[in-house]
Amino acid sequence: MNAHEIDYKIHGEEMQHVEIELDPSETIIAESGSFMMMEEGVQMETIFGDGTQQTGGLMGKLFSAGKRLLTGESLFMTAFTNIGQGKKKVNFASPYPGKIIAMNLAELGGKLTCQKDAFLCAAKGVSVGIEFQRKLGTGIFGGEGFIMQKLEGDGMAFVHAGGHVFERKLNPGEVLKIDTGCVVAYTKDIDFDIQFVGGVKNTIFGGEGLFFATLKGPGSVWIQSLPVSRLASRIMTYASVGRRKEEGGIMGGLGNLLDGDGR
Question: Any alpha helices (H) in the chain, and if so which ranges?
């Protein structure tokens, strides 16, 4: 293996964290802000990108890391290395309610494409880059699905997603239509595209968006029931409306009853 071989254990149900066990000199890389805790003997170091860019000088490293800005991530990542004696543990936490999924890239064909905010951490040697969707429809209308993260290598990688997460295996030629925000990740042989919902009533009154993702097998796709963008949208809508100004009156009380807030 080119990537470091690490052991792990995922803890929790709704707000999970992953415990990584490092042998001496083993390293794991993680997104900034995902660190939770570590034992004495683990060294933390900020690096450009994922640390796999070894050639091309400073400009090459800057260009490689700079591509991550297109996915909304930082130029830098953090590397955690066991510099002590014996096994050491370091933990990383999911930033919102959902699940952490362990992905063995060696068993997934060496490549995984995932949503731009899904990556949590990975064994050193895993390349974390970006994946542009080449099709015109995807580029213009794809929204969340246009620029995605690309994980390549033969090591363990960990991604997180909102709500309930499950894997769906697609047979050759089998097509699945999904809300673009619900796609967490998919394997390299999946054909990803964006399709117009169609129909005047669907377009005007549907409330589900004008486009959805189509994924064609063979391969595997991981799906989340609660995209963080959907959760954030609902919270912002509720926050902007706030409590009814007239909740002290008869109409306000009736409205709160209808909302299920009949205290």
Answer: 57-66, 136-141, 200-205, 228-241, 250-258
pLDDT tens for the 263 residues of the chain, in order: 588 999 999 999 888 999 999 999 999 999 888 999 999 999 999 887 776 754 445 555 555 555 555 555 567 889 999 999 999 999 999 888 889 999 999 999 999 999 888 999 999 999 988 887 655 454 444 444 467 889 999 999 999 999 889 999 999 999 999 988 899 999 999 999 887 766 545 445 444 456 788 999 999 999 999 887 776 776 777 776 655 444 444 445 544 544 555 44
> Which tokens belong to 200?
């005047």
Q: What angle do CA 99, 104, 107 make, to 5 degrees?
A: 130
**Selection from 159, 100, 104, 124 nearest residue 26 by Cα:** 124
The helix, strand and coil proportions of the chain, stated in percent and rounded to the nearest 5, come to 20, 40, 35
Taking the C-alpha atoms of residue 166 and residue 36, their distance in angstroms, rounded to an integer, is: 25
DSSP letter for each residue of 1-35: --S---EEEEE-SSS-EEEEEE-TT-EEEE-TT-E
CB-based contacts of 252, cutoff 8 Å, min separation 6:
244, 245, 246
pTM for this entry: 0.78
Note the CATH number of domain 7-243: 3.60.160.10
Pick from 157, 148, 137: nearest CA to 52: 157
Paired residues of 149 in beta bridges: 114, 130
